[in-house]
Design brief:
alpha/beta; 28% strand; globular; Quinone Oxidoreductase, Chain A, domain 1; Rossmann fold
Length: 343
Amino acid sequence: MKALVLEEYNKFSLKNVPIPKIKSNEVLIRVKACAICGSDVHGMDGSTGRRIPPIIMGHEAAGIIEEIGKQVKNFKKGDRVTFDSTIYCGNCYYCNLGKINLCENRRVLGVSCNEYHQDGAFAEYIAVPQHILYRLPDNVSYEHATFIEPLSVALHAINNISIKINGTAVVVGIGMIGLLIIQLLKIAGCGKIIAIDIDQLKMELALRLGADSTIKADEVDPQIKILNLTNNKGADISFEIVGISQTIKIAIECLKKGGSLTLIGNLSPEVKIPLQFLVTREIEIKGSCASSGEYDACIEMIARGVINLDALISKIVPLKEGPIWFNKLYKPEPGLLKIILKP
């Protein structure tokens, strides 16, 4: 089969590789669409340590079942499916609590690190265990299905906090997850949504998708601007989706006393934080990792058309053009969002 392989850091090749052999509890899926995630882009240069070459990346995908293992139930050849990006064991302490994203034996598709190697879906076929499969409604296209995984990440972050009806939320970093969070906040009844970034095109899109105000962080002081927008109080909640010291500082200092920050971005392994501001204002900080059972809700929302996905698709291209678009995303090219690759 054809697969897009990261052969060495910053170098992709379209190669012929063996079709995966399925285990008794697995299915073989013919991949119909797989989108490039920001974590793939950040991982291609080796900076995250999560994409050690050679590796087939890709975890935002959907396709058709081509073959099923002997123990597979409830799925058959020809079923249209998507799948969780996380392979969880289902037996450990955290899985038994329902927190599958914290599984002690967690493996992520398209990740190669010191602990494990798990090839992903930038290929014609992928093998996955049946317990991470989800059936797709007929009215959900394969291209739209590639958004189920990132939408589940956004919904998990939203579900982790208490949202006040008519409250104020700040979203720092308005890439894919940020733009999905903005849409979910609007659905949840958030009264004022403020988006912060340095990309003017993405800020304009944020306004189209539900943000009430935008702040270009390299031109104005976000803290002062947010105080002006909130009667000098600050925001109730904030979401940080970058993962570097500067943006986390913004996400903290925009909050009112007793406010809550959700951290989703983790670009840097370590960051500096304004500790005295946190302590003296009793700011709550929560981490949000991947998703934990939100797929069904996301599939339903996409099937009902309540999330605008077409506005987020920049390009749908053949798998062989993957290296070109990885480089464009890595630069990054202004305004570029979701690139979907089709084997």
